[in-house]
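Much of our argument rests on the idea that a fold can be written as discrete symbols. This step matters because it turns folding into a mapping between discrete strings. The record that follows shows the chain in one-letter code together with its fold in token form.
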Amino acid sequence: MFSSVSTLFKVGDRITDKSAPPDDIAVREWLGPEAFGHWSELRTWIDGFYPAVFEPDWLYGGKNRGWSLRYKKTKAFTTLVPEYRRFSALVVMGGAEREKFEERRYVWRPQLVNLYDEAKTYIDGKWLTLGIASADDLHDVRELLTMKRPPLAHN
């Protein structure tokens, strides 16, 4: 008797097959239609507002972290982490970004402020990992990224 795929993986599992980076088809199947919609929307937004700035690259972080898609020029911009039936965006906030965040502390959604307050601060900044499950979550990530690096285009 074969188990269905849904019993083999649990929500949040990473893509850990290190033989090759996942392609769009594999990511869509892994994320599911709703999460893949958010994934595509964020990638399209980055491409539209930061044309020709980033060449996203797949990184393999080992069997526990699996694959992630990093956007970086000279400094890290964001890293998208495909997880089973969802995905997260990692945004590292250095000193300048933390100052800007604090200036707008009471404008952000309470969930984002809590995430920010609970995030560990490392030598290179606060590492915020935002789960993307709604349009509001996408909006938060876009606002953080815009604060981190002003867009080149306003499509």
User: Anything to note?
Assistant: The first helix runs from residue 5 to 8. Helices lie at 5-8, 24-31, 33-49, 95-103, 110-118, 135-148.
